[in-house]
């Protein structure tokens, strides 16, 4: 008899059955004499320890016990049950194999527990934390073929540090150790802790590495503890150099020669010797200032290494410059592998040569990309990109990128007369690994600063409406203070937008048609206006999300100042009819600022909380009465307020449904406020779920008044009642995280709609899940790639 269930449903059915049936005992699968290990408990016997200290010690000791029992959920062990019921597979594939060895867990038995070993671990750990002369014992509690081990630990009193001495002698290395003792981690009055002692040895080693002691090691330091010279559970610590410390570790080394192999291959080294003799005469033809660049084919200009290398001939070695040099060589982006070696060249005078062995990446690459996409505005489409990259364009590690692309978006549903979008364009960028400027720019960052020059062109067609030509050029700098802080300054960013064609249909929407009942809409006219936008932009980014912590933050701030100096010099004043032109086109003048702040909290390895606040304002003045359409703010869609379709929300309480359906997705504003909160949980490997709430809106700085004096977007201006116009949506999401790709599906519904009547904007009382028309209009499915923030 064939199964009624399709194959892809069987794992789901099996797991559901396991969740129910696993309430039955797993012990029936045990053999005679076997007992299921259910875990261990540590009891602390010491009445003098504070309750908080005892609780912390108990948790630390239990964490060190092995093995861990089978995982449980609400008192059940479904993974163990899956292992027990699954048949032994004949092959390493198939459902049985997955159920038994991928999902299931092998039973952890009492016989797997080495109780003596665990007892020793508990004693050693206690003593390492300063509880000298600790004692431990264990007992086994069993019932119904289940067993638990109870460990009882008598830690005694914790010893405190009474004195820290750094033993002195006349050697240079000891003198440097004495200079480091003021910042010692070993403090009088603190508990004795082996972990802190190890950290102190690492600290001393790091300090000595900064002073040229390249061959020193933390193990060369010994910290002797003496508990016999003091009373009342005190201990004295004596920090000194081990007598067996190698002589080489006590010598301070300086740099002799700096040699770079920019086209390194393992074949360049034979029997431990380089193909180029390292004598001064042999290296002389490769000399550049104080370094030698072994590049017979002249693939790289030597000056790029002079900027990246922090070691010069005669410098005392230090780890900071060592790591900084390696990081800067990597950040050039032209080398696949960066290796560093130090070889003693003069043992008498304690000198070594520094070798940098650099393996280049593929200098040129050609990549073809295709992608498909859909959005909540009922558009679906695709894009094709052809990208060419040259990573050493002028032999100075300059990266030159050129791309051509084509894209289309087709209306899949919704408004019948909405229009398709076609985009075709090309762009180029030259990234130079230094600051090209009339002033000197010094950076001690591990990241090489860059000068970026870009030029791009795009042709955009919105079928039956208009076609636009967009030319963009920019010149600016990008530099990072460290891994967390990045600056992006475009000294000049120019955009020229020109309409190529405007159809009668679109022009009619702009001018209005009384006979057809179409009111004038000057907002649409700004989309196809000739626009000349130029000025500086600055972006600052701070993030510590690359560091795994309980709490992480991300901040991005942007400032865009267009036409300010030109407007000031020319005395432009559009409101008074004195608008100035450049090349026959009025230039835009405005100030725009945007802030994006995100906070992430990690509850545990599988659950976390993410939140975001975006606030921005764009203010036109001088030569402009309105901010250019392309520079305004938009909300809604898969990465914004997900309960509303892209660009269909706002401004303010304005109802976009009153517009012609062709222009429903064109709502923009000068002020933006958005807030998002999302709870994320992993339920199985690549499968994640989320629950989220989004809120926000956009507003106008000035009312949209047409030539007839009519406000074309009533309710759109920012006012003191802006909080009552904040839209709210909520939903749930499913994320398939495959590491290289995250596929996201978010289902959202509006909770508060700002364009409803003021006292009737909360929509929970309108919910009609059984009504198909309500579901169609209010349940929004967003399909996207990557997380929303």
UniProtKB/TrEMBL annotation:
It comes from the Bacteria. Its main location: membrane. Gene3D superfamilies: membrane protein fhac, membrane protein fhac: a member of the omp85/tpsb transporter family. It is found in: Membrane. Residues 385-759 form the Bacterial surface antigen (D15) domain. Keywords: Cell outer membrane, Membrane, Signal, Transmembrane. InterPro entries: Bac_surfAg_D15 (IPR000184), D15-like (IPR039910). The keyword S-adenosyl-L-methionine does not apply. This is BamA/TamA family outer membrane protein. It comes from Epilithonimonas ginsengisoli.
């Amino acid at each position: 008899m064939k199964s009624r269930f399709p194959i892809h449903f069987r794992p789901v059915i099996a797991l559901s059955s396991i969740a129910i049936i696993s309430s039955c005992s797993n012990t029936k699968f045990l053999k005679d004499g076997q007992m299921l290990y259910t875990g261990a408990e540590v009891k602390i016997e010491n009445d003098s320890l504070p309750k908080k200290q005892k609780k912390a010690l108990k948790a630390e000791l239990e964490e060190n016990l092995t093995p861990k029992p089978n995982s449980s959920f609400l008192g059940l062990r479904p993974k163990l049950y899956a292992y027990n019921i699954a048949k032994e597979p004949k092959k390493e594939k198939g459902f049985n194999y997955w159920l038994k060895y991928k999902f299931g867990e092998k039973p952890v038995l009492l016989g797997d527990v080495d109780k003596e070993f665990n007892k020793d671990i508990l004693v050693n750990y206690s003593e390492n934390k300063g509880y000298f002369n600790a004692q431990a014992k264990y007992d086994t509690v069993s019932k119904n073929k289940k067993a638990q081990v109870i460990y009882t630990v008598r830690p005694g009193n914790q010893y405190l540090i009474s004195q820290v001495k750094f033993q002195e002698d006349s050697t240079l290395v000891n003198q440097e150790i004495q200079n480091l003792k003021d910042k010692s981690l070993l403090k009088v009055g603190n508990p004795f802790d082996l972990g802190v002692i190890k950290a102190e040895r690492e600290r001393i080693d790091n300090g000595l590495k900064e002073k040229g002691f390249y061959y020193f090691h933390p193990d060369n330091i010994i910290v002797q503890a003496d508990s016999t010279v003091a009373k009342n559970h005190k201990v004295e610590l004596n920090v000194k150099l081990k007598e067996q410390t190698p002589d080489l570790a006590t010598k301070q080394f300086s740099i002799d020669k700096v040699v770079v192999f920019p086209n390194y291959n393992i074949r360049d080294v034979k029997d431990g010797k380089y193909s180029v003799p390292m004598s001064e005469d042999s290296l002389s033809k490769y000399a550049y200032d104080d370094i030698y660049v072994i590049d017979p084919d002249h693939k790289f200009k030597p000056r790029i290494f002079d900027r990246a290398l922090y070691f010069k001939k005669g410098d005392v070695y230090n780890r900071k410059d060592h790591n900084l040099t390696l990081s800067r060589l990597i950040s050039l982006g032209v080398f696949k592998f960066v290796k560093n070696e130090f070889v003693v060249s003069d043992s008498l005078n304690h000198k070594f040569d520094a070798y940098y062995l650099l393996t280049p990446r593929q200098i040129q690459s050609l990549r073809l990309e295709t992608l498909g996409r859909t959005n909540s505005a009922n558009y679906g489409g695709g894009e094709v990109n052809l990208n060419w990259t040259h990573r050493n364009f002028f032999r100075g590690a300059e990266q030159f990128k050129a791309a051509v692309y084509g894209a289309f978006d087709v209306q899949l549903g919704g408004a019948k007369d909405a229009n398709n979008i076609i985009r075709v364009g090309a762009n180029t960028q030259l990234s130079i690994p230094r600051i090209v400027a009339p002033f000197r720019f010094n950076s001690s960052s591990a990241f090489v600063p860059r000068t970026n020059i870009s030029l791009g062109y795009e042709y955009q067609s919105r079928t039956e409406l208009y076609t636009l030509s967009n030319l963009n050029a920019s010149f600016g700098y990008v530099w990072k203070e460290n891994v967390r802080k990045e600056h992006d300054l475009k000294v000049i960013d120019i955009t020229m937008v020109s309409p190529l064609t405007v159809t009668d249909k679109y022009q009619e929407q702009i001018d209005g048609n009384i006979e057809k009942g179409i009111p004038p809409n000057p907002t649409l006219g700004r989309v196809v206006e000739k626009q000349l936008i130029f000025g500086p932009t600055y972006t600052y980014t701070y993030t510590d999300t690359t560091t795994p912590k309980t709490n992480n933050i991300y901040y991005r701030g942007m400032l865009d100042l267009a036409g300010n100096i030109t407007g000031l010099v020319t005395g432009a004043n559009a409101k008074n009819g004195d608008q100035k032109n450049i090349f026959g086109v009025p230039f835009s003048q405005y100030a725009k600022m945007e802030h994006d702040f995100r906070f992430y909290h990690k509850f545990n390895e599988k659950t976390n909380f993410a939140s975001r606040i975006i606030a921005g304002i764009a203010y036109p003045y001088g030569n402009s009465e309105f901010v250019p359409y392309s520079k305004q703010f938009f909300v809604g869609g898969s990465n914004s307020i997900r309960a509303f379709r892209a660009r269909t929300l706002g401004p303010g309480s304005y109802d976009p449904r009153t517009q012609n359906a062709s222009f429903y997705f064109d709502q923009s504003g000068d002020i933006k406020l958005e807030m998002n909160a999302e709870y994320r949980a992993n339920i199985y490997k690549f499968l994640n779920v989320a629950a989220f709430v989004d809120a926000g809106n956009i507003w106008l700085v000035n009312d949209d008044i047409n030539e007839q004096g009519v406000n074309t977007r009533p309710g759109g201006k920012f006012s003191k009642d802006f909080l009552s116009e904040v839209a709210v949506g909520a939903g749930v999401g499913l994320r398939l995280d495959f590491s290289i790709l995250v596929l996201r599906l978010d289902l959202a519904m509006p909770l508060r709609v700002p364009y409803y009547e003021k006292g009737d904007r909360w929509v929970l009382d309108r919910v009609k899940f059984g009504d198909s028309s309500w579901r169609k209009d209010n349940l929004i499915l967003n399909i996207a790639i990557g997380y929303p923030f």
